Amino acid sequence: MDSFEVNKILGAVLGTGLAVLALNIIAGGLFSPEVPAKPGYEIAAVAPEGEGAKPAAAPKEEPIEQALASADAKRGEQTAKICQTCHTLGKGEPNKIGPNLWDVVGRQKGSGAGFSYSDAMKAKGGTWTADDLNKFLASPRDFAPGTKMTFAGFSRENQRADVIAYLNTLSDSPKPLPTASK
Fold first, then answer.
1. Based on the domain organization, do 145 and 98 belong to the same domain?
2. Which terminus has fewer CB within 10 Å in the chain: N or C?
3. Is the pTM above the cut of 0.70?
4. Tell me, what DSSP letter sits at residue 156?
5. For position 162, which CATH number holds?
6. Whole domain around residue 23: which residue ranges?
7. CB 171 within 8 A of CB 105
């Protein structure tokens, strides 16, 4: 192949590159997107008439005693498997990221041996009652703002009741759980 053929090939490659660049510049000029003055999307929301800007009322939760009446410790054991990511459940087992949960029902809050609790949990005081465990398992950060626990919580009350029933079995002498008054 002589130099004239090489020049023709290189000229074709260069010409094609220039043509593509020119088409890109022309297309960018013709089809340029409209840049908004303020980035983001505008969301049009209409407030219900007569209510103004009132937030929707949260559904009223029944007392935990009613959910505990139909709680199943076996279901709670299955649900509590997610807890084992950070906690141990057996008697005398070491703490993990979270404290050991053996005999937690009725235990003083923030008092598990060998675990460094957050100041928020230490400040709560009192013992872990079924009602306190229910509130904590629903949303740990709402129950004790500043807690180290990153779990979002169990949204369903029957799940929380099952877990509380299961946690209550993790003891040498399980405490009596509250019952619904008639």
1. yes
2. C
3. no
4. -
5. 1.10.760.10
6. 1-32
7. yes
